[in-house]
Structures are given as C-alpha cells and as structure tokens.
Protein 1
Amino acid sequence: MTRLTVTSNENETIAAGEQLAQEISKIKTDRSIIIFLEGELGAGKTTFTKGILKGFNYKELVKSPTYNIVEIYETDKYRVFHFDLYRISEPIELEEIGIEEYLKELKSVSIFEWPNNGKGTLPSADFNVQISYNGKDDIRELLIS
Ligand SMILES: Nc1ncnc2c1ncn2[C@@H]1O[C@H](COP(=O)(O)OP(=O)(O)OP(=O)(O)O)[C@@H](O)[C@H]1O
Ligand SMILES: [Mg+2]
C-alpha cells in the first residue's frame, strides 16, 4: 500500500512523521523495525524523523546525525536509532559503526537517511518514505509505502 501526503510547511511534515509512528506501533514484532527516508539534501528527512520521535512521545532535542552517523533515543516503547548514511560509501564503514549490533537490538526502530549508501548491507525496509520537493518553496510530497 502506498500513499501520498503533501505538506506545505515543516509542522505538517512533523505531523506526517507522528502518524507513521502510530502505524509503526501497530507492527507486532520484537525485531528492529526499519524505516528508509529518501530525498535530496534539505528535503525534510530529519524533520520527518522529529515527527516519528514526537509520535513516540519523545520530548527532548532531536539533532541531525550527519556528523555522528547515528543518534540514539530512548522512548517509552522503543529504542530509536537515527542513521544518516550520507558520508558512507563502502559497506566496511557500516560494519565499523557496528550496524549488525544495532539491527539485532530487540524493540527498536532504525531510521535511515540516505539508505542507498547501505545497499547490500541493510535489510529491506518496513516503511519507505520518499520525500520530494521542487527546491524553491515549502511544499513537500511524501510517498509512503
Ligand atoms: N514542508 C516541509 N517539510 C519539511 N521541511 C520543510 C518544509 N518546508 C520547509 N522545510 C525546511 O526544509 C528543511 C529540511 O531540512 P531537513 O534537515 O529535515 O532535511 P534533510 O532531508 O534531513 O536533509 P539532509 O539530507 O541534509 O540531512 C528545514 O529547514 C525545514 O524547516
Ligand atoms: Mg537530515
């Protein structure tokens, strides 16, 4: 099932992320739930992640993991790993950050920005979110499947 959501500001994208958090919560599994966020620089992937975390009732600061590659958040139901693979170019680099260990963690949600940089190493996603925009206004199209 695929759905299209159009947002016209940051808060609407956060609300879309919150909505996805509710759907994630309905998945009955203990294994790590995988979310791929695709879209160019500044599309709104980190903004959407803020929404997911808000939906999990996380109230503190959420920052872009660009420099650390992964940020970890403890929420009521899940431990959330937010990855930014922008600077990853070889599978060995994912091994080095201990990707296997993260993915093995029970009751967790792993969110990936730039998932294509982990192709061949990452498992397939439970939800794929493609965010597109025309580069000039605040309109974003979110294709969630
Ligand atoms: N409708 C919208 N949805 C999301 N963000 C929007 C929207 N309109 C404007 N923005 C702005 O666009 C920017 C999106 O930045 P964000 O860090 O979420 O992008 P990103 O996809 O994570 O980029 P990067 O690949 O660099 O990590 C923010 O500054 C946000 O305020
Ligand atoms: Mg980002």
Note: The chain has one domain: 3-144.
Protein 2
Amino acid sequence: MTNSTEQATKGQGGLTRAALFGLCPCCAAHTLWDAPAGFAPSCRSCALVFADYEPRGRGLYIVLLPLTFLLAAGALKLDDAVRPPLWLMLGLMVAVVPGVIIGVLRLTKAALLIARLRAEGVLA
Ligand SMILES: [Zn+2]
C-alpha cells in the first residue's frame, strides 16, 4: 500500500468515525456532538475547542440547498411511481427527511473539522 493510499484510507475512517459515532478526531473520545448536528463546545477528554472550527451560517447552504432539492424531487418521484396513501407519504417524509439532513450535516461538519484541523497542523 502506498503512502497516499494510507493517507486517504486513514482520513475516510476518521471522517466516518467522527460523523457517525461522534469521536474526537484527536483523542477518539465520544465527545464531538452535543446536538444532533452541532458540535460540543470542546472535547471533555483532550480539551480541543470544537467551537472554533464549527462551520456556521450560510456556508452550509451550499450543501443544504441541493439536498433539499433532491429530497423534494425524490418525494415527488416516489409519489408518482408508487402512489402511496397521503398518511404513509407524510409519515415517511417525517421519518426520512430529518435523518438524511442530520446525517449529511454531520458528514459535512466532520469533514470540515478534520480539514481545518489538518490545515492548522493539529492533526497529522
Ligand atoms: Zn478529544
């Protein structure tokens, strides 16, 4: 395995662990998420301040707007193809939309956190 392949694999594993399991990128403690898609102010184990690296505001629109369009288009396509009852469609949307949005926000925020930590030399 080449060095660049190791780096790519190592980064993806860290991103997945940070986004899905809330592991701190520095010490791997379960301290990253304080809200469904919000960082804790800092790591309780290694004192890394997550709040300094958290993307906020309009920067996340570049992810949320296309995602909203895709979710709406998927709902319309599903309704057109299957014609489920309204109560089932509403229930499905209430269950699926928040989960997808929170999952994508977690992946995006974890990727930005790791990239910013690497840019500042905090992570190797
Ligand atoms: Zn930590």
Note: Residues 3-119 form one domain.
